[in-house]
Design goal:
The protein is an alpha+beta fold and about 350 residues long. It has one domain. Helices cover about 40% and strands about 15% of the residues. It is built from 8 helices and 13 strands. Strands 1, 2, 3, 4, 6, 7 and 8 form a 7-stranded mixed beta sheet that branches. Helix 5 packs across helix 6 and helix 5 runs antiparallel to helix 7. It starts with 9 loop residues before the first helix and ends with a strand. The relative contact order is 0.14.
Length: about 350
């Protein structure tokens, strides 16, 4: 029987793919061995167990998405109250455009805000209910992000790169500022390159860098390490803010960019008219805000965003299920789990840690 994928929901396709992957993983070890009388029963048991585990994981993912929706709803409330512009972006916006909800495998929510609205939001931390915490370098000493996170208190989302820190680790959504940027390509590249370099120094000092030295020459690595040791964090924070201000100063206020965005140059640059005052869009039964010309913006950043990516590209934060907790977490649980030996991570090598003495 031929099945038309376009006639099946994105969620069903995802679940079918997950089940197929589980079955393949279970069967593969047995294909290289001679079959015994009990092999069919063993394979069936393995497949059943693998699918049950996947189903359990998928349920937890859905619970995570619902928690993140609570966080987005709270941001929407505060922004509408104070007439601040915000827009869902990235995979969140793709999901809203495709099906009016989460991409089935997505485990986070991203939003962007024009710089003036973002800066205003940072002064409104007390406007959020006690269930939430607006995490920025102003509200938490050890926070070093250029963007902000709105986290839910009493929850836990244990990303490996932050487990050695004492920052709040609750389930979150990311909030990225949008800065005006020059029309000139050479200035755009300079802004992105310099911002990324300064941010790399900061992440390295905080020991949260990932794959820092991939495809880098030895002279660059040596120079980077020397500069990293010399420059203090306060200076690096100041330089990073200065780059954002220079980015705006060199612009004619036609284009905007998310310097801290995951897609980098040039995809993170677009005419502000595509964002403008925004528009309402349905997301998981809620009305939230999206860029005014969100279809054009998605085409610019992702191409044919309505086309499902290959199974191997349907990735998320890959946080283990046991490191996602929905209630009962206290500030004590956010304390560091271990120390980290190096200030960076070599490509393809796991983090090198030093456990605390018991």
């Amino acid at each position: 029987m031929n099945i038309n994928e376009n006639s099946i929901s994105e969620k069903d396709i995802f679940l079918a793919s997950t089940a197929a992957e589980a079955a393949f993983e279970a069967v593969t070890p047995y294909l290289e061995n001679e079959y015994s009388a009990d092999v069919k029963q063993i394979i069936e048991a393995k497949i059943t167990k693998a699918i049950e585990e996947k189903e359990k994981s998928n349920k937890k993912l859905r619970q995570l998405q619902k928690t993140e929706l609570e966080i987005l709803t709270e941001l929407d409330r505060v922004c509408r109250k104070h007439k601040l512009r915000y827009y869902i972006v990235g995979g969140t916006l793709i999901g809203a455009a495709r099906t009016g909800g989460f991409i089935p495998w997505d485990d986070d929510i991203d939003v962007s805000m024009p710089r003036e609205d973002f800066d205003k939001l940072l002064t409104l931390k007390d406007e959020f209910s006690d269930e939430f915490f607006l995490q920025t370098h102003k509200t938490e000493k050890d926070c070093y992000f250029f963007y902000a996170k709105l986290r839910k208190n009493g929850t836990y989302f244990g990303e490996d790169k932050f487990e050695h820190t004492g920052i709040h680790k609750g389930i979150f959504m990311d909030i990225f500022p949008l800065d005006y940027i020059s029309d000139k390509g050479i200035i755009q590249k300079l802004c992105f390159k310099s911002f990324s370099l300064i941010n790399a120094f900061i992440c390295s000092k905080k020991k949260t860098s990932e794959f820092l030295y991939k495809n880098m020459s030895l002279p660059f690595i040596v120079t980077f390490r020397i500069i990293q040791c010399i420059l203090p964090l306060p200076l690096l924070y100041g330089l990073r803010s200065l780059i954002a201000k220079l980015t705006k100063a060199l612009s004619n206020k036609r284009l905007v960019a998310s310097l801290a965005g995951f897609h980098g140059y040039p995809k993170e640059i677009a005419p502000f008219e595509l964002w403008a005052e925004g528009t309402d869009i349905d997301f998981e039964g809620k009305t939230v805000r999206a860029p005014k010309e969100y279809k054009k913006l998605l085409n610019h950043m992702f191409g044919d965003y309505m086309q499902l990516p290959p199974v191997e590209e349907r990735v998320n934060h890959t946080v283990a299920d046991e490191n996602i907790i929905f209630e009962g977490v206290t500030a004590e649980d956010y304390k560091p789990k271990f120390k980290r030996k190096r200030s960076h991570r070599y490509y393809g090598v796991d983090y090198d840690i030093i456990p605390f003495e018991k």
